[in-house]
Amino acid sequence: MRFSTNVASLVPSATLAISARAKRMRAAGESVIDLSAGEPSFLTPQVGIEAGVEFVRSGKAGYPPTPGIPALRSAVASYVNATTTLARVEPADVLISAGVKQALFNAAFCLFESGDEVLVPAPYWPTYLAIVELSGATPVVVPTDWANGFRIDVSDLDRLASPATRGLFLNSPSNPSGDVYDRDLMAEVAAWAAANDVWIISDEIYRRLYYDGDSAPSIYDVPHDSDRVVHLDGVSKAFSMPGWRIGYAVAPQPVVQKMSALQSQTTSGAAGPSQHAAAAVLASPERDHIVGDFREILRRRRDMAVSALDGVSGLEARVPAGAIYLYARLTQTSDSMAVAERLLVEAGVATIPGEPFGTPGFLRLNYAVSDEELAEGLARVRTFFS
Ligand SMILES: Cc1ncc(COP(=O)(O)O)c(C=O)c1O
C-alpha cells in the first residue's frame, strides 16, 4: 500500500502495541502479568460516574461546543489556579480535547511546521516524536544521564538550539522514569525558554501523582512567559479515567482559538458525557481527597516494587518521585528489547523496553496494578533475573 508522506514513517504507539499483545496472550489463556500499560487500575471516581450517567440518561446528545463545555473549561481553570502558585487561568484559556494526546497534537500542529526544530529531552514519551514529525517539524533529542536523575542541563539546550528552534517539550513527572524536575530546574528551564523565545509544551499529566508533596512543581509554579507556554493535563492518570478520553491544554487565547479551529475540522471535540463526568470530578469538593487516596495506594505499591527489585542482579532501580512507573536499569546489557521479549515469553511479564523512550537498556514497569498482580509480576521478574 502506498501511503501519503504525511504518515509514511508513522508507526503505531510501541507502548499500546505491547499492552495489546499482552492482552491477546491473556485472552489465549496464557498467564501474563501486564506491567506494560500506562494506566492506573482504579475505578472512576463515583462523582464522575454519576454525572456521566445522568448526562447520558438526559438524552441530550447534541454536539458539545468544540473547545469544551463551559462547566468543564471553568472547572479546569479553577483547578489549575487552585493547585499551582502563579497560574491566572481564565476559562477562555482552556481547550478541552479527547485526551492530552489530542491536545498535544493540536498544539504541535498549530505551532510548529516544516523547517522548525523542537527539543525533546530523553527519555521521552514516544508520542512526542511522532506528533512533532506529523507537524512537519524535526524533533531534536536532548540527551540526559540516568545517574543525574535524567535532569536536563541548560548548557545542552544552548548547545542543541539553533535559529530554527521553536519548542521544548517538558514532562515532569516523567513517563517513563518517574523523575521530577525540582522548582529550581523548572525555573532555570523556563528562563532559558523565555530568553530564547521558545515555546514550552509542558505535559503535566502526572503532576498530582507525586510522592513528596501534593503536586510536583508545575511550569505555573515558576516565573514563565505565559505567551509562550502550553500546559497540558487531564483526568486519565490522577483521576484514573483514561477511557473517558478527556485532556486539556491551557494556552494563550489566540492559540486556544486556533487549536479549537483545528479540532472543529477534525474531531469536533471531546464526547459530551465524558466532559460532564470530568467537570463533576474536577469541581468536586472531594477532588483532592480522591487524588490523595490514589497517591497513598500508589506510594505503597511503588515502595513494594522498589524493595522487591532491590538486590536483583542485572537490574538497578531507584525510587521515583512521581508518576506510576519504575524505570529499572539493566546493568549487563543495553538490549532491553530482547530482555523485554524474553521476560514476556519466558516469564509471562509484560514490560516496556527503553528503546521507544530513546534510552535503550531500561525496562519500564507500571506499578499501578492490583497488589496481587504486582506481587506476582515482581516475583516473576526476580526469578527471571536470578
Ligand atoms: C506523558 C503522557 N502524556 C500524555 C498521555 C496521554 O494522556 P491521555 O490519556 O489524556 O491522552 C500519556 C499516557 O500514557 C502520558 O504518559
Per the principal axes of the C-alpha atoms, what is the gross shape?
A: globular
Q: What is the number of strand segments?
A: 13
Cofactors and ligands = pyridoxal-5'-phosphate
Largest sheet: 7 strands, mixed
How much beta, percentage-wise?
5-15%
SS content category: alpha/beta
Distance between the termini: 46 Å
Strand order, sheet with most strands: 2-8-7-6-5-3-4
What does the model show?
It is built from twelve helices and 13 strands. The protein has helices at residues 14-27, 46-58, 70-83, 99-111, 127-134, 154-160, 183-195, 253-266, 272-283, 287-309, 336-347, 371-385, and strands at residues 33-34, 94-97, 117-121, 138-142, 165-170, 199-203, 229-234, 247-250, 315-316, 325-330, 349-350, 352-353, 362-366. The model has no long low-confidence stretch (mean pLDDT 96). α7 (183-195) links the parallel β5 (165-170) and β6. α3 packs parallel to α9 (272-283) and α10 runs parallel beside α12. By secondary structure, it is α/β, with parallel strands linked by helices. The protein is globular, with a radius of gyration of 20 Å. The strands form three sheets. Strands 2-8-7-6-5-3-4 form a seven-stranded mixed beta sheet, with helices on both faces. A four-stranded antiparallel beta sheet has the order 9-10-13-12. It has a two-stranded parallel ribbon with strand order 1-11. The protein starts with 13 loop residues before the first helix and ends with a helix. Pyridoxal-5'-phosphate binds next to α4.
